[in-house]
Amino acid sequence: MKLAVFDFDSTLMDGETIEILAQSHGVIEQVASITTKAMEGKLDFYESLKARVKLLKGMQEQQARQICQNLPLNKGAKEVVLGLKNRGYKVVCFSGGFKFATAHFKDIIGLDADFSNTLHCKNGMLSGEVGGEMMFGSSKGEMLQTLQSLLQVSPSDTIAIGDGANDASMFQHADKKVAFCAKEILKKQANIIIDKKDLQEILSYI
Question: Which of 28, 60, 125, 153 could make an S-S bridge to 23, C-beta 3.0–4.6 Å?
Fold first, then answer.
């Protein structure tokens, strides 16, 4: 068995979920500033996530769900997942973003599993709190090791694909490290760099 792990925001999906939610809630400038620093590795991921989600407090839960279920996928998202599956890979996504989005797109894209965070809701509104499996800068690497152990997959049979600083922890446990339209901090740790915004490009390296 082989394993392919994708980031979601700005990798499978074209954009940052939290910024799209923030745009609708009128707090885009504050959230985007924190996101940029976090993705460049200038801010602790956990602290940045908590600070950004806090700014979404009071947003209607239904509105947030609707936005998350209508996000734009990057070109080739469905095709790359099918192509990897045809080559014997289990394909999952790890996201510092939210279950509202990843659970919805899991079946649309054809993923085997999704791991992300949950926006806490109370009385039909976002409470400004968040919890889940992908809260820390090290979370993706730790979850990858867990899956490799469970599925008995070695790093040599693992490919990790991402765009930001919090994807670096995956790279430590995958022989194929793909920086997809990525920040410079991640490109420096990758051995496959794709700057064309088409996920099918990945298949030429398999």
Answer: 28
